[in-house]
Amino acid sequence: MNRTLAFVTALAAGMSSAAGVAQTAAPAAPAAASTQSATAPAPVAPHAVPAKIATIEFEQVAAATNEGQRALQALEKKYEPKGAELQARAQEIDTLKKQLQAAPATMTDAERATKLRAIDTKEKQLQRDGQDAQQAVSGEQQQAIGVVAKKLAPVVKKYVEDNGYTMLLDITGQQGGSVSLLWTSDGTDISRAVLEAYNASSGVAPPVPSAPSPAAHPHASAAPKPPLPKQ
C-alpha cells in the first residue's frame, strides 16, 4: 500500500482553509468621474498562524484495526498449507545433505556429483517457490489493508477537524518515504486514538488470537500486528 503525498497535502490544505487563514479584500469604491485620487489600502503583512500539528502512522493504523487484523488472519490461514509444504521440502533437502555427508568412502565421485546436482536443483526450486509465495502474500496483504485504508481516511479527517488540528503528517516509514517530518512535539501522535475511534465506529469485533503453529509460513514476518507509538 503506497502512501500518497496528495492525501496529506489535500488534508492539510483543507484544514488550513478551515482555520480561516484568508486575506479579506477591501470593498471596491464605485466608479465616478472625480479628479481626486483614492488612497490605496496598505497591503497586509505576512504573519504567523498558530498551528496544531498531528502525526499518524497511517498504514500501521489501517493494519492494526480489527478489520485489518481479521484480513491478515484470513491470509495466514489461506497460506498455511503452502508454508507447511515449503517447510517439508526444506527438511527433505537437509536430510539429503546429511545422508551425503554420512555416505561411505566407497561412494564414487560420479555418484556423489549426481547427488549434489539433485540437492542443488531442489534448493534452487525451493528458493524460487518461496519467493513466489512471499510475493503472493505481500500482494494480497496490500490489497486487503488498502480496502481498510479507504474507509479509515474519513475517520482520520473527522478526528483532526474535531480536535482542531491544522496539519496532519503521515510518518509511516518516514526514513525513506516521500513525506518527511520536520518537527513534532510529544502528545501529537493520534495513531492510537484514531485506531480506537475507527474500531468503535466499524462495529467489527477483535479477531480471536491464532493458535501457535509449528509450521513455518512464507509470510511470517509480515503478518504480526504492527506496534503503535506510545501516547
The helical percent reads 40-55%
The total strand number stands at 2
Task: Give the strand line-up of the largest sheet.
Answer: 1-2
Report the principal-axis shape: elongated
- SSE succession: HEHHHHEH
Could you characterize what this model shows?
- With 231 residues, this protein is mainly alpha-helical.
- It has one domain (1-13, 52-231).
- It is 53% helix and 3% strand.
- The protein contains six helices and two strands.
- The chain has helices at residues 5-18, 58-64, 66-78, 80-101, 109-162, 191-202; strands at residues 53-56, 167-170.
- A two-stranded parallel sheet has the order 1-2.
- The longest helix is centred in the middle third of the chain and has 54 residues, at 109-162.
- It is elongated, with a radius of gyration of 29 Å.
- The model is unreliable at 1-37 and 219-223 (pLDDT under 50).
